[in-house]
Amino acid sequence: MNKNELVKKWGSGLLAGTLIIGSLAPIAQPYRASAAEDTIQQVAAAGQGSVSDTMFEDLDGDSVQDSGEQGVAGIKVELHNDQGALVSTATTGADGKYTFANLADGTYYLHVDLSTLPTDQKLYTTQGINGADGNSSYFTISGGNAVTGYHFGFYPQQGAIQSFVYIDTNNNNQKDNNESGVSNVHIALYNESGTKVADATSAGDGGYSFTGVKPGKYYAKADIPANYKYQSSTYFGSDGTTGYFTVANEQTVRNELNLGLSTLDNSAVSGVVNNAATGAGISGVNVELHDVQGTLIQTIQTGGDGSYNFSGLEKGNYYTKVVIPTGYNYASGNGYGSDGNSNYIALTGDNTAGNYSINLQKQANATIAGVLNLPSGLGIDGQNVSLYTADGTLVKTVATDSNGDFRFGSLPEGDYYVKAPIPDGYVFDSSNGFGNDGNSYYVHVESNSYVDSLRLTLAQKVGQIRSTVFNDLNKNGTQEATENGIAGATATLYSASGAVVDTTTTDANGLYKFENITPNNYYVKVTPPTGYNVLANTAFGSDGVSGYIQVQSQQSITNLNASLVLQATPAEVSSAQWIYNKDGLNRVVNNNDTITIANNYYDSYNNPNINVQFFNKDGGVVNTTGYTATFSNPGLVTPIYTNSQLLAFVHSEKTGSTLVTVRDANGNVVRTFTIVVTAADVKATDIVLGATSIKTTVNATGKVSATVQPTTATNKTLAYTSNDTSIITVDANGNWVAKKAGTTTITVKTTDGSNITKTIDVTVTDPNAITDVRWNFNKDGVSRPVNTNGILEIPNTYMNQYNTPHVDLQFYNSAGTLVQPKGYTVSFSDPTIAAADFTNPDLIALVHNEKTGSTNVTIRDAQGNIIRSFTFTVTAGAVSATDLTLGASSIAAKVGDTGKINATVSPTNATNKTLSYTPADTSIITVDANGNWTAKKAGTTTIAVKTTDGSNITKTVNVTVTDPNAIASVKWNFNKDGVSRPVNTNGILEIPNTYLNQYNKPHVDLQFYNSAGALVQPKGYTVSFSDPTIAAADFTDPNLIALVHNEKAGSTNVTIRDAQGNVIRSFTFTVTAETKTIADRVKSADVELVNLRPNTGSTGTNAYIYPHSADVPAGVTYTIETYNTQTGLLFSNITVGTTDGTYHQVLHNTTNPTATWQQTGNTIKVYATYQGVKYLVLQGPSTDYYSSQTTHVWKD
Question: Where is the signal peptide (predicted)?
Answer without folding.
Answer: none
